[in-house]
Amino acid sequence: MDKIIYSSEAEVRGSYDVIVAGAGASGICAAVAAAREGARVALAERYGVVGGNLTAGFVGPILGSVGSGTMRDELVDLLEVPDNDWIGETGKAHNVEKAKLTLERFVDSPNIDVFLQSQVSHVLKEGNRVTGVVLSTAEGPVALKAPVVIDATGDAVVSFLAGAEIEKGREDGLMQPVTLEFTIDGVDENKGLICIGDVDNVELGGMRFLDWCQIQADKGLIPQKIAAVRLHPTVIPGQRQVNTTQVNGVDITRPEGIFKADLELREQMFLLEKFLRENLPGYENIRITGSGTTTGVRESRRVMGDYVIDADELAAGCRFPDVIVHKALFIVDIHNPAGAGQAEAKIQYCQPYDLPYRCFLPRGLEGLLVTGRCISGTHRAHASYRVMSICMAMGEAVGVAAALSASRGVTPRDLPVTVLQDRLTAKGVDLFSK
Ligand SMILES: Cc1cc2nc3c(=O)[nH]c(=O)nc-3n(C[C@H](O)[C@H](O)[C@H](O)COP(=O)(O)OP(=O)(O)OC[C@H]3O[C@@H](n4cnc5c(N)ncnc54)[C@H](O)[C@@H]3O)c2cc1C
After folding, report:
1. Residue spans per domain, the chain
2. What is the pLDDT averaged over residues 296-308?
3. Residue with the nearest Cα to atom 38 of ligand 1?
4. Quick check: CB of 322 below 6 Å from ligand 1?
């Protein structure tokens, strides 16, 4: 491969206590939690809106659960979503357009400078210590410095650029498919069914709806790989959030494949609209009202940390002395990396589990914390803790850790976890209940 060497200058725009890269579910909680501890925070986001998958990705409902007292509960209230059970059977997705404003209000604080349309493109390091980031902006490169940087990019961009140990996908390297989520309105609520996914046994005409969908795919009415038609209710009557399109074999960290995937997903979206209109009772008058500005990425890089958690531990409901997220709960939900539906014939259920602080500390690097779907775990474990409730609680815990590290002048790895636990507990976060 041809390589060139180029050099560039970046103006240092600010020195902060904490930089958070990525303003998704986890990053916004990290930034707000750090700011509430008194830290001066920079929050950098590549898109023109905060929220990540929750807004730009049109992803909902907020699935999974965590112990009481976390920022997840605050956000669910702010987003005005009714109480959800952890798997979403009773839950509704938020209003995506309203969420864009709600989440921008949430991060709008005197202690936080938010940089939108600012993509982290380079990491500043002194030895093995991360000391800041360079943002690619319309003004060219802009540098920000801080003693603690939080990688909340989902794709582990900061960790990768800093030279962290990274894993991707399962043993054969394949990752979960990408999906473009979209909303439709015009569903007749008296007739139009809801299907939350592969665990749903909702029926249509005496038959399991998902089996009916499979028959339609066998007839060629929809492609086989999108035969699991997931139709989530939202807080808006007559609206559904459709989580069905999929393209396999895409590695989102490689720019070459993204366009073709997005094109195929957008073709599938209109094909599904037509299919639903023509075949599903109550859906005769639907129309697409919006779609993600981005292909939704379930899985990309995972950062290897001081501890790598695995799915057996989640299934057993493992407890850890250095817990910072408690009673996390979701299934091991692996959308098939190689085809349609689920990857595993039997869905693995979990017991409420802990996430230990060591999963948030990238091996061999200082000054860096990781949060959200790219923390240190296996492919199967990631398939559970990647949901938004759990990512929010992670972000809050890591934001407090970053602020405490900065104020005490220690690296996150040298912060005694009991100090972090005491602070989270004092805020009302449950870390230790049975
Ligand atoms: C199709 C799909 C359906 C899903 N369904 C559900 C569901 O129903 N319920 C649920 O709870 N979860 C669901 N998930 C999972 C969940 O949405 C994600 O795992 C979760 O949002 C991860 O949160 P995060 O904050 O780690 O990452 P993200 O939400 O991806 O946020 C990362 C942020 O970092 C930004 N970023 C990335 N790189 C850079 C950079 N270099 N510089 C600056 N900013 C950067 C991104 O733009 C983004 O805003 C789904 C995911 C997908 C893709």
Report:
1. 11-171+300-426, 182-291
2. 98
3. 153
4. no
